[in-house]
Design a protein that fits this description.
The protein is an alpha/beta fold and about 600 residues long. About 35% of the residues lie in helices and about 25% in strands. Bound molecules: 6-O-phosphono-alpha-D-glucopyranose. The site of 6-O-phosphono-alpha-D-glucopyranose (G6P) has 16 residues, from helix 9.
Length: about 600
């Protein structure tokens, strides 16, 4: 989703801004722009399409300056056009970049038009720059003007504002959209994600909700939501961003699929010891909190929601704890009942997804016993705002379609199952079984990747298809959902997932020889039930692709292609079966020639509603 980079320095900053944008490309965007301050005043350059096109335009025009702001836009208000791309200007004096959505933009627009301002875009953002321009008339300086302007904004914003008459000064404001300040020596930077600034600094200050900050080359001054000046702790980032990036792989997604054994190993390291799961992986107070937990409410979006759905099967079966799972955008807008002793669990790769974060904030007002996040970014809002946090160690995930974040989330959630089970007095044998199964997982994942070539060949059969159906049962049902999500995200083939038992209640009507049916076969007592569902498809002329434990005794024939998966303890089977489905969607997308790492219309981190 939208990305922000800003810089004020003694050197020219265009390259820093453009490199920052390039590093944020993975988040998904449709246009990009830059504005710099130099002797000529404010200069702006915007392009629809890739950052590369903006970079080329910058090289051709030579536009540069000692302070600047830059942005990648993911359209919300107004189409994908150069006029709607950021930065937006007011009277060639104020320049603004903005992430988020200004909800009262229509009334502000009318008000500002009444004051004589002309709007050049259809965006909600443009109201910010005219508003700041208007406030400057009475507030005297940029900082005070921004402070006054943000009081009038409703909605979410992470914004950076520059004034042509106050060179080298950037004012930033955060409410609902993350912003980080990068500290340099005699230069300072701003970004929506620290990844953008790693070439220039490793020292960061995270702005908190309601903060407004003044950033110059020499100083950073922060004011909280009450207007009081505050000190915010600087942290040293250890995040790795390998700009060479893809290594031997053609896409980040393929690299990240292949990184899963090591990502899971890193996630387990020091936390699974013999037959034991280390409780401190969840935070200092985990042991005391877990003893009080009688119910778990999971809230998440997208792939993370699917991880939550798998966890529900596990929690109820192995930990004896009841569990609900809900999509965050639904949870946050309905009245829900909070069971006594409930733990609110958010699952998020980024820790910044707007709906999940809003759900967490809502839950904190509803009487949950505690909140826990399973998250991949230590510095994220969700980690900072939750009582407990389990950090997955997937490393930076660049491909928009989530892969290694999902499998590491599942590993973390399985540890949570063991921990809650133990706190609930479940037999120690369950913890031991989970610990041993998890310890075996990295090598099993490596084995699962060995079938890459078989999947690559299989992908040929999907390339001319418009629709597909994924089936699973039990804890493999969410894996079927995740498989369908991957296929539609990156190959644009319509993919639906059903619990196989529901087939006869509708989807059977879709079955014919042109509709591939992908089946994820469980390795448990549901296997026989699933085999009956497979027969229902076969009887209607369906063509099936069955991913099954080699001991499940499925045989390939004219209508059924069986892909054998290594035998594992059924408890970790959902994690293992995820990999071939990821590979299938990847190779189908390759044949279809889509943009695998940045699929159309999608964003990596969805920081607006
Ligand atoms: C976007 C991404 C998905 C991700 C979802 C939730 O839709 O494209 O890959 O699963 O957001 O993101 P989160 O960071 O909260 O896991």
């Amino acid at each position: 989703m939208c990305g922000i980079v800003g810089a004020t320095a003694e050197r020219r900053v265009a390259d820093i801004l453009l490199e920052g944008l390039r590093r944020l490309e993975y988040r998904g965007y449709d246009s990009a722009g830059i504005a710099v301050l130099n002797d000529k005043g404010l200069e702006q350059l915007r392009r629809v399409g890739k950052v590369q096109e903006l970079t080329q335009a910058q090289a051709e025009t030579g536009i540069n300056g000692f302070a600047g702001i830059a942005h990648t836009r993911w359209a919300t208000h107004g189409g994908v056009t150069e006029a709607n791309a950021h930065p937006h200007l007011s009277s060639n004096r104020i320049a603004v970049v903005h992430n988020g959505i200004i909800e009262n933009h229509e009334s502000l627009r009318k008000e500002l038009q009444g004051l004589g301002y002309t709007f050049n875009s259809d965006t909600d953002t443009e109201v910010i720059c005219h508003l700041v321009h208007e406030e400057l008339k009475t507030q005297g300086n940029l900082l005070n003007a921004v402070k006054a302007a943000v009081k009038k904004l409703e909605g979410a914003y992470g914004t950076v504002i520059m004034d042509q008459q106050d060179p080298g000064h950037l004012v930033v404001a955060r409410s609902g959209s993350p912003l980080v300040i990068g500290l340099g020596i005699g230069e300072n930077f701003i970004a929506s994600d620290q990844l953008a600034l790693l070439p220039v600094t490793r020292n960061f200050i995270y702005l908190e909700e309601g903060d407004v900050a003044s950033v110059t080359r020499e100083a950073v001054t922060i004011f909280d939501h009450t207007g009081a000046q505050v000190e915010r702790e600087a942290i040293v980032s250890e995040l790795q961003y390998d700009a060479g990036g893809k290594g031997e792989y053609r896409h980040f997604m393929l690299k990240e699929i292949h990184e899963q054994p090591i990502a899971v190993r890193n996630t387990l390291e020091g936390r699974v010891n013999g037959d034991k799961i280390a409780l401190d992986a969840f935070g200092e107070d985990a042991e005391a909190i877990f003893r009080d937990i009688r119910h778990v409410q999971i809230v998440a979006c997208g792939t993370s929601y699917h991880a939550g759905m798998v966890a529900r099967y596990w929690l109820e079966e192995y930990a004896g704890v009841s569990c609900n799972v809900e999509i965050a955008s639904e949870f946050r807008y309905r009245k829900s009942h909070v069971f006594p002793g409930s733990l609110l669990v958010t699952i998020s790769q980024s820790g910044e997804t707007a709906d999940t974060l809003a759900a967490l904030r809502l839950a904190k007002t509803l009487g949950y016993r505690s909140t826990l996040t399973v998250c991949n970014v230590a510095s994220s809002s969700m980690v900072r705002e939750s009582d407990l946090a389990f950090l997955t160690k997937a490393g930076a995930e660049i491909g928009v379609a989530s892969t290694k974040a999902f499998t590491t989330q599942l590993a973390g959630l399985l540890m949570l199952v063991a921990a809650l089970g133990k706190a609930n007095g479940v037999d120690a044998a369950v913890e031991a079984r989970i610990a041993r199964a998890l310890a075996s997982l990295p090598s099993k994942l490596e084995e699962a990747l060995a079938i890459t070539q078989e999947i690559e060949e299989l992908a040929e059969e999907f390339a001319d298809k418009d629709h597909s159906l994924f089936l699973g049962r039990g804890d493999q049902y969410p894996i079927a959902m995740e498989g369908a999500l991957k296929l539609k995200e990156i190959s644009y083939i319509h993919a639906e997932a059903y619990a196989a038992g529901e087939l006869k209640h509708g989807p059977l009507a879709l079955i014919d020889a042109y509709m591939p049916v992908i089946v994820v076969a469980p390795n448990n007592e549901l296997l026989e039930k699933l085999k009956s569902n497979v027969e229902e498809v076969r009887a209607r002329g369906g063509i099936m692709y069955v991913f099954a434990d080699r001991d499940a005794h499925f045989e390939s024939d004219d209508t059924m292609h069986v892909i054998n998966i290594a035998h594992v303890d059924e408890i970790i089977a959902p994690i293992l079966y995820t990999l071939p489905l990821q590979l299938l969607s990847y190779y189908v997308a390759i044949i279809k020639g889509t943009d695998v790492d940045q699929p159309r219309n999608l964003a990596k981190s969805v920081t607006v509603e």
